[in-house]
Write a structure and sequence with these properties.
Structural class of chain B: mainly beta
Order of helices and strands of chain A: EEEEEEEEEEE
Helix content of chain A: under 10%
Largest sheet of chain A: 7 strands, mixed
Helix content of chain B: under 10%
Shape of chain A: globular
Order of helices and strands of chain B: EEEEEEEEEEE
Oligomer: heterodimer
Strand content of chain B: over 45%
Number of helices of chain B: 0
Structural class of chain A: mainly beta
Number of strands of chain A: 11
Chain lengths: ~110, ~110
């Protein structure tokens, strides 16, 4: 049973560029959440997708956008990259119908903005 | 606004010691609390999930307790091993914003051989 997978593993971009990160949820899961983790900090919630729609959003600017596909996989897009966007981006999947489900995290994508 | 705090930020212990990691949260209105392990540069591995109606959960050498009224949780690790070295994060699922997890900054644990 494949767990949550993310691609790419590492990415280097320059300021002002755009980036797309990808996530495939754990088998049987229909909900994907994205988190940003700066060095030495806990992850911060970006947004969650359920039934191909953004269900909830954290305190992130509109430069951060996403998409969920019919197969439940998801993309995170970040436009006009800033140096401060350098972080580990984590994807988590779950069954979105309850408030008590466990979230399973992927290995993350390390984004470096130069 | 829910805030999660983990103390200490770092901990170094000799192998074999029993240890306790602490997590506190400011708002007791939560659905559950989850403990995670993170190895350097890697993703999060879920260790234990405690629902708000539960007092504790156990898995192997790990035991997590939850005191919702006081806003505290502890993760107890018995007979620590060098392989336990990692960062341990706790996260709560608040009732007023139930689709996200709110994390503490973690406790970085080093178990010395």
């Amino acid at each position: 049973d494949a767990g949550v997978t993310q691609s790419p593993t590492h990415l280097i971009k320059t300021r002002g560029q755009q980036v797309t990160l990808r996530c495939s949820p754990k088998s049987g899961h229909d909900t994907v959440s994205w988190y940003q983790q700066a060095l030495g900090q806990g992850p911060q919630f970006i947004f969650q997708y359920y039934e191909e729609e953004e269900r909830q959003r954290g305190n992130f600017p509109d430069r951060f956008s996403g998409h969920q596909f019919p197969n439940y996989s998801s993309e995170l897009n970040v436009n006009a990259l800033l140096l401060g966007d350098s972080a580990l981006y984590l994807c988590a999947s779950s069954l979105g119908r309850t408030h008590t489900d466990t979230q399973y995290f992927g290995p993350g994508t390390r984004l470096t903005v130069l | 606004k829910q805030e999660v705090t983990q103390i200490p930020a770092a901990l170094s212990v000799p192998e074999g010691e029993n240890l306790v990691l602490n997590c506190s949260f400011t708002d007791s209105a939560i659905y559950n609390l989850q403990w995670f392990r993170q190895d350097p540069g890697k993703g999060l591995t879920s260790l234990l999930l405690i629902q708000s109606s539960q007092r504790e959960q156990t898995s192997g050498r790990l035991n997590a307790s939850l005191d919702k009224s006081s806003g505290r949780s502890t993760l107890y690790i018995a007979a620590s091993q060098p392989g336990d070295s990692a960062t341990y994060l706790c996260a709560v699922r608040p009732m007023d914003s139930s689709y996200k997890l709110i994390f503490g900054s973690g406790t970085r644990l080093l178990v010395r051989p």
